[in-house]
Amino acid sequence: MWVPRLLRTIKQHTQFTRQISARIVNGTNIEVQPEDGKPEKLIFPSVWLRDNCLCDECFHGSSKSRKLDWDNFDTRIKPVDLVADGKEKQVVVRWSDHHESRFTLEWLKDRSFQKEKQEEYLREFYRPETQHWSGKQFQDIARHFNYEEVMSQDSTLMQWLQSLAVHGVALLRNAPLDEGVVRRLAERVGFIRRTTYGEEFVVQAKPGAQNFAYLSLPLPLHTDLPYYEYKPSVNILHCVVQTDSPGGSNMLVDGFHIADILRRDYPEDFERLSRVIVDWNDIGSEDGRKFHNIWRAPVICLDAEGRYTRVNHSVPQRDSHFNVPLAEVLPWYESYARFVRLAIADSHAFKTQPGDVLTFNNIRLLHGRTGYDDSEISPRYIVGAYLDWDIIYSRLRVLKNKIQRKPQ
Ligand SMILES: [Zn+2]
User: Which residues fall inside 5 Å of ion ligand 1, going by CB?
Assistant: First the structure.
């Protein structure tokens, strides 16, 4: 009995006082070696460490906000002394401004400047990496979730939002058939995004309409509200009643996949569609309030690193004002026509059933609907609402912190 206890004691002791080491490199960086004898070394710039001091004077703990006096911040700050405290697993830095900062190893590791760690953080926590799909792959990528499970279990809510972020589409099933479903779902995530047309909206052909309007025309592929700078992010479409007629199917296309094809096979079209700025507009009145919305943006919007930030496409909502040089006009039309042809060829059609809630990314996917015969014996009734990505990503991070204990 005696020997194992001794061994255990030594082992515990070793773990407890495991050495970490730290040193000043070039007078400006601090190198931390989390474990003696292991090659892993983390390097942190002094200016960043001093800026992120966690003491009460520099950091407001309950709001997790910096309160350092930045009016007098010295970007040339130097560390003058360093203590690697293996017992507390922290590094203590004394600075040239006579201040002292303490950083735990865990906090430092979470904020590593190593490229792979930063990429992992951005991919796993900032925003999940998108995976693009062709229409043929729709059945493989489209995830289904049970509505009640999404409403009652945080882990299912997290999986739904994760799928929406990665693939841009997910389907909820077995929702009740009342008109409050989209609001309850939006409020489970955060809150409904209001637009010119209100909060919830109803997609329904007007009964008793004259002659050919009696048939609900096909709705060509488009994104909703491209004329907003802050375009609504995610459509929630709750199928309450579905038509028995052969039409009324949803069509979806991954706009990022179409952009991938253009980028690979038709680089000149890709260049034009991501550069030439198009005017998108919407003019009308709602509830007695006149509106005139315009937003100017390319069909394919890119960030500084060439990643897609948004796709815009809507035939009705493209303005006749086209503020580009004359020489750009015809080439742009040719490129846009190619984009539209590729999207139509790749679109996937499917029909939602009563109780289905189709959710998809309006920043990324194009959607449409096949025509259908809307009559009193064959009605169709869809209730919709929008959510914003800021609200969805925030909810997803909160859930990951709670369920997967991701860093703060
Ligand atoms: Zn401080």
Answer: 53, 55, 57-58
Structural domain includes residue 118 = no
- Measured over the CA atoms of residue 159, residue 160, residue 161 and residue 163, the dihedral's sign is positive
The residues with which 381 forms a beta bridge, in sequence order, are: 241
Q: How far is the CA of 127 from the centre of ligand 1 (A)?
A: 31
> What is the residue range of 308's domain?
126-403
167 and 34 in a common domain: no
One domain, residues 213 and 333: yes
Structure tokens belonging to residue 203: 């997609």
> What's the 101 CA to ligand 1 centre distance in angstroms?
6
- What is the CATH classification number for the domain harbouring 54? 3.30.2020.30
State the distance from the centre of ligand 1 to the C-alpha of 114, rounded, in angstroms: 25
Q: What is the model's pTM? A: 0.90
Q: Distances in Å between the alpha carbon of 383 and those of 76, 173, 238, 242, 323?
A: 58, 15, 5, 12, 36
408 domain-assigned: no
Distance 50 CA to ligand 1 centre (A): 7
- Number of structural domains (the chain) is 2
**Ligand 1 mean position, distance from CA 44 (Å):** 16
Is residue 119 in a domain?
no
375 CA → ligand 1 middle, Å: 70
284 contact partners, CB below 8 Å, separation of at least 6: 290, 291
Q: What spacing in Å lies between the alpha carbon of 97 and ligand 1's midpoint?
A: 11
Task: Measure 79 CA to ligand 1 centroid, in angstroms.
Answer: 13
pLDDT in single tens digits along all 408 residues of the chain:
343 443 333 333 444 455 788 999 988 899 998 876 677 889 999 999 999 999 999 999 999 999 999 999 999 999 999 999 988 899 999 999 999 999 999 999 999 999 999 999 999 999 999 999 999 999 999 999 999 999 999 999 999 999 999 999 999 999 999 999 999 999 999 999 999 889 999 988 765 544 444 457 888 999 999 999 999 999 999 999 988 888 889 999 999 999 999 999 999 999 999 999 999 999 999 889 999 999 999 999 999 999 999 999 999 999 999 999 999 999 999 999 999 999 999 999 999 999 999 999 999 999 999 888 777 677 889 999 999 999 999 999 999 999 987 555
Ligand 1 mean position to 57 CA, how many Å?
A: 5
The answer to whether residues 145 and 285 belong to one domain is yes
Residue 190 lies in a domain: yes
The two beta strands, 143-146 and 169-173, are parallel
Q: Decide: 138 and 130 in contact? Cβ < 8 Å.
A: no
- Whole-number Å distance, alpha carbon 95 to ligand 1 midpoint, is 10
